[in-house]
Write a structure and sequence with these properties.
disordered N terminus, five-stranded mixed β-sheet, about 10% strand, alpha+beta, rod-shaped, single chain
Length: about 400
């Protein structure tokens, strides 16, 4: 913007602005002619001033068309016209209101001061006498201060609306940012649940299928007895059951993620008591698991549902990792703690000296990362280390009752 315009106020002209400018121009011309006619009837204007009055009033009215883009220039053009022409008074009111609206406050006050200095003694120039100078001065001050106050009020209103608009845009942007964070958090939660559910079940499927493949290769090489139909049917039934359980658990996870509110049945959430089923599934694959639950049933019952699920996921991840990276190695799962002492979940397994001939079950490497985030959200810590050929996964959680 140019010529002293406040940068926060728009200077572009819309169709509404054209309509307003046209109405103001016509009103200024009409009211100026009325004022000029009244003054001429009274015969108060001096001869030379009376000849210039219509021309100065017309120039002032025409200047209104550029008042939006050049408020300071229009104010300076209108200054002598308003001081020397009675027909310019209606247009002058628009000009004073305009520079109070569009100029910065220092420029606006200086321009107002110039108008006061020029208009107060204008009675001597217009009428050639000073008898009514006090009345003219009071009229000029009232005329200028009223129009200036009106322009300042319009400016304050526009600035307030703009500030509210900016605040609304900022609030909308903040809402979009929070919504984006919520979406990212939801995607991370989905990824954690999918990994925890599918990785465990798929690892069980891989172990059973690997055992079938190994026995078949041994039989073909003459290094072992061939599988009979009963053994094949039993293995196929175990694989089918694990796949069916994986689908059911996946459906439960999706149901939880889609649910709204806090009224979700706790039965859909895994609980600490369900770790027995995890251990049973692991033992069914030939994985030696030693389970040490050192928690009383009453104490476990008082724990929050979210804490139940976290403890379950820690044990599940530990068993899954042991099955992937140390197949056949002994695993110990220990649960300990109580009110005031916190809750500890520890899974330990021996690391094999070599990977052997069997292929390892592939993993994404994101299980421990997601598990650490889950434990952190519950106010706990997750540690994992290797010492003396033993891998230890340990989660420490605060004891939080319902």
């Amino acid at each position: 913007m140019t010529n002293g315009l406040d940068p926060v106020l728009p200077a572009g002209r819309t169709w509404r602005d054209w309509a307003v400018d046209a109405v103001l121009f016509c009103a200024a011309v009409f009211l100026g002619m009325v004022v000029l006619g009244v003054v001429e009837e009274q015969g108060e204007l001096s001869g030379r001033v009376a000849e210039l009055d219509p021309l100065l009033g017309l120039v002032t009215c025409l200047a209104l068309w550029w008042r939006r883009r050049f408020p300071l220039a229009v104010a300076l053009i209108g200054l002598p016209a308003v001081a020397l022409s009675t027909s310019a008074l209606p247009a002058g009111a628009v000009i004073v209101t305009n520079f109070a609206l569009r100029l910065r406050w220092r420029q606006a006050l200086l321009t107002l001061g110039a108008y006061v200095v020029c208009m107060v003694p204008s009675g001597l120039l217009l009428y050639g006498r000073g008898a009514d100078l006090f009345v003219d001065a009071v009229f000029c001050l009232a005329y200028l201060l009223t129009t200036f106050a009106w322009g300042h009020a319009l400016r304050s209103r526009r600035l307030l609306l703009q500030r509210l608009r900016v605040d609304a845009e900022r609030a909308r942007a903040e809402h979009e940012r929070r919504l984006g964070d919520a979406r990212r958090g939801e995607r991370q939660a989905i990824a954690r649940e999918m990994h925890d559910v599918l990785a465990h079940r798929v690892s069980l499927l891989s172990v059973h299928a690997g055992a079938l493949a190994y026995r078949t290769r041994q039989a073909q090489a003459g290094a072992g007895p061939a599988l009979d139909s009963a053994e094949v049917a039993e293995s196929a039934e175990v694989i089918r059951g694990s796949a069916h359980e994986a689908v059911e658990e996946l459906q439960e996870v999706l149901h939880l993620l889609r649910a709204e509110g806090d009224g979700e049945p706790v039965s859909l959430l895994p609980r600490i008591e369900d770790i027995d089923s995890l251990v049973a599934d692991a033992r069914a694959t030939g994985q030696p698991v030693d389970f040490h639950p050192e928690l009383t049933a009453d104490a476990v019952h008082e724990l929050r549902s979210q804490l139940h699920r976290t403890v379950y996921r820690v044990a599940q991840e530990g068993l899954t990792n042991a099955r992937k990276h140390a197949p056949g190695a002994p695993v110990s799962v220990c649960l300990a703690g109580g009110p005031g002492r916190g809750l500890t979940v520890e899974v330990r397994n021996e690391l094999p000296a070599s990977s052997g001939t069997d292929e390892a079950i592939p993993g994404t490497g994101a299980g421990l990362t997601g598990l650490a985030e889950r434990v952190r959200l519950d106010g706990g810590t997750l540690d994992h280390k290797v010492a003396d050929g033993i891998f230890t996964l340990c989660a420490r959680l605060p004891w939080s009752a319902r």
